[in-house]
Design a protein that fits this description.
The structure holds two protein chains of two kinds.
Chain A (H helix, E strand, L loop, with lengths): L1 H31 L6 H19 L2 H23 L9 H22 L16 E2 L2 E2 L3 H23 L1 H11 L1 H6 L4 H23 L12 H14 L4 H21 L5 H15 L14
Antiparallel strand pairs in A: 1-2
Chain B lengths: L1 H6 L22 H22 L2 H27 L6 H21 L7 H24 L4 H21 L1 H4 L5 E2 L15 H24 L2 H11 L1 H6 L4 H27 L1 E2 L6 H14 L4 H24 L4 H26 L3 H21 L1
Antiparallel strand pairs in B: 1-2
Subcellular location (chain B): Cell membrane
Protein name (chain B): Branched-chain amino acid ABC transporter permease
Keywords (chain B): Cell membrane, Membrane, Transmembrane, Transmembrane helix
């Protein structure tokens, strides 16, 4: 029972990060109908910026802010410089271009920083509080929950309550009509990419210290897990992404705790296939007639 | 699903530039023409195997192995419209199967020239089985969903070799015992030349089969499903079955390619079949020209030549050893990434698309001058 409680809490903490990363994927999917396969690489690049800033200034928080700023900037640049010019006639094209970005970003990171694992610092201890001999959440886990909760509420507030959020939703829902009504559709798209990439950078900052460390490929498996989370929730639904993230985090935590951590990649694949084959629209999608 | 929606051709009749034009109409017997091309290519290969130094022979053999995989992928992605990021994992399946077969043969002391073909066929069969499983799942998925699942396959399968390291020997991988060239070829027959002959023969056979398939009823069905699933269904084509067939064919060639790579390197390890390999294959296919077998050749050549070129380039620069090592390892990746993005933005037809456009322009001008 102790172990179960521990695994559940650990899974929720991991799941919170997957939720944030899945949310980033969902944001771009809703805005541009593109699954950003370069999300992981862009987030790692932002984490490397944080590493450099922290190493230069000695402050974790300056690095943290730098990562968020770099994430926002990368998202805007990727949209303005590359994605805007991709021919969307075939859904394959944006995916292929995103994969080209993955290779490019990882190669540049490898050239500048080398491909060894670098330690990533944490602002709080990762030692769990013990209650009656039972190790529970660590201060760092609480920080992760708080950060993800702040981001999710902030996004919900932006999209539901602000004029910019309304414009972004309008631009995604009906670009032509919004343009006629004076919405800067291109600008809203760039803003969507920047926001999503910023959230991705935050997720990378939160997850990398809990794994092996900073590495150009550090987010590969996290990306697959987060993609699974987004699909579990349905690619179109932000609340679904959050729930999906927590579900995936829990499943992975139980699998690695009870069956061995080597099996987690396999568990991700099985979960992804199971969801796609049984409910391709995700758990939250209304049952829809399939095309063809 | 909006992804399928977006795939519909534009209403104003403009041709989607990413899809190659219809195959040119050619006279004569398709099979005979393909056989003639393969025979000429085989003769050229044999000639080159004598003219080139051993290391170049080995490189050419590696090109042949990659060509199997890229040709299969270009049929799947270019002609059938299914994106697979998991072909590296399928190559790994073929490679490990060949390792098991060859080890089993050599443990039992069986020798003979027929062993290698048997192992290669076993590798293809194993990959077909794996490909059928993935393909059945893939046939139900579209666009980004399919890409996500195959990406998961590419990340997970190399990890499995570490999970079950009792069977696959973890990161170190297995060795592949391969017999020396037959004595009938003479005692001093260079080993690299024999490697090129083996890889070249297998690849030419695979290409011949693929080329005929592309021009057959099945090839037309692949393209019909790619262009418009609803129309294909209305024309009596079983969409899901066609997609599974395309995936299985593509998996078979990928398995053969992986098996050949294992035979050439005489070892297999998960590091050789990482996600990066899968992305490289896709890139090679896109840069060469999606859906064109000739483009797959360009792609395979690039896959072998680019690391070589970047090695030569970094040797020209004076750098500290650590920096040089970083640069050399990552330069091909960066070049590939940039080229992929630029090709997708500027010339979606790839190298072969540019070449055939050039060829058409030249022949049109020549005809205009004659008339």
């Amino acid at each position: 029972m102790d172990r179960f409680v521990f695994l559940t809490l650990d899974g929720l903490s991991r799941g919170a990060v997957y939720a944030a990363f899945a949310l980033a994927l969902v944001l771009i999917w809703r805005a541009a109908r593109v699954v950003n396969f370069a999300q992981g690489a862009m987030a790692v690049a932002a984490a490397y910026v944080a590493y450099s800033v922290s190493a230069a200034t000695g402050s974790y928080w300056l690095g943290f802010l730098a990562a968020l700023a770099a994430g926002l900037l990368f998202g805007a640049v990727v949209d303005r410089v590359v994605m805007r010019y991709v021919d969307h006639a075939s859904p394959l094209n944006p995916v292929i271009v995103a994969l080209g970005l993955v290779l490019l970003i990882q190669a540049v990171l490898g050239m500048v920083y080398g491909s060894e694992f670098r330690p990533a610092g944490t602002p709080f201890s990762r030692e769990g509080f013990t209650v009656g001999g039972l190790a529970l959440l660590s201060p760092y886990d609480l920080f992760v929950f708080a950060a993800v909760a702040v981001v999710v509420s902030a996004l919900a507030w932006i999209f539901a309550r602000t004029a910019v959020g309304l414009r972004m939703r309008a631009a995604a829902f009906a670009p032509e009509v919004s343009r006629l009504l004076g919405v800067n559709v291109g600008g809203m798209l760039t803003l969507g990419w920047a926001l999503a990439s910023g959230v991705g950078a935050l997720a990378a900052m939160l997850v990398i210290p809990t794994e092996l460390g900073l590495h150009p490929h550090a987010m590969d498996l996290v990306f697959v897990s987060a993609f699974t989370a987004a699909v579990v929730g349905g690619l179109d639904s932000p609340p679904g992404a959050v729930v999906g993230g927590l579900v995936v985090g829990l499943v992975l935590s139980y699998v690695s705790g009870y069956a061995g951590s080597d099996l987690t990649p396999l568990a991700v694949l099985v979960l992804l296939l199971a969801v796609l084959l049984v409910r391709p629209g995700g758990l939250f999608a209304p049952v829809a007639a399939r095309r063809v | 699903m909006s992804a399928t929606r977006a795939a519909a051709p534009p209403a104003d009749g403009a041709v989607d530039p990413a899809t190659p034009p219809d195959l040119p109409r050619r006279r004569g017997n398709t099979l005979l023409r393909h056989l003639a091309v393969v025979a000429v290519a085989g003769l050229v290969l044999v000639g080159m195997s004598y003219a080139l130094e051993p290391f170049r022979n080995f490189q050419l053999a590696t090109v042949a192995a990659y060509l199997c995989a890229t040709a299969g992928l270009t049929v799947l992605t270019g002609l059938n419209g299914q994106l697979s990021l998991g072909h590296g994992a399928l190559m790994a399946t073929g490679a490990y199967t060949v390792a098991f077969c060859q080890t089993a043969f050599s443990d039992r002391g069986v020798t003979g020239l027929w062993l290698l073909p048997v192992s290669l066929v076993a590798a293809v069969a194993a990959t077909v089985a794996v490909g059928a499983v993935v393909g059945v799942a893939a046939a139900r998925l579209r666009g980004p969903y399919l890409a996500g699942v195959t990406l998961a396959v590419a990340v997970v399968v190399p990890a499995l070799t570490v999970t079950f390291d009792g069977v696959f020997n973890g990161e170190q991988g297995l060795s592949v015992p391969v017999e020396p060239p037959p004595l009938a070829l003479g005692p001093y027959f260079p080993y690299e030349r024999w490697q090129l002959w083996v890889a070249g023969a297998a690849t030419l056979l695979a290409l011949l089969l693929l080329a005929n398939l592309v021009r057959s009823r099945y090839g037309r069905m692949f393209r019909a499903v790619r262009d418009d699933e609803v129309a294909a269904r209305l024309a009596g084509i079983h969409v899901a079955r066609t997609q599974v067939i395309a995936f299985v064919v593509s998996a078979a060639t990928a398995g053969l390619g992986g098996a050949l790579l294992a035979v050439l390197a005489q070892s297999v390890s998960p590091g050789a079949f990482s996600l990066t390999l899968s992305l490289f294959l896709l890139m090679a296919v896109v840069i060469g020209g999606l859906g064109r077998l000739a483009g797959a050749v360009w792609g395979a050549v690039l896959l072998v030549a680019l690391p070589d070129l970047s090695h030569a380039l970094t040797e020209q620069l004076t750098l500290s050893p650590a920096a040089a090592q970083r640069l050399e390892g990552n330069l091909p990746l960066a070049i590939f990434g940039i080229t992929l993005i630029v090709v997708m933005l500027v010339a979606p037809g790839g190298v072969q698309g540019l070449l055939s456009r050039l060829g058409r322009a030249v022949s049109a001008r020549w005809r205009a001058r004659r008339s």
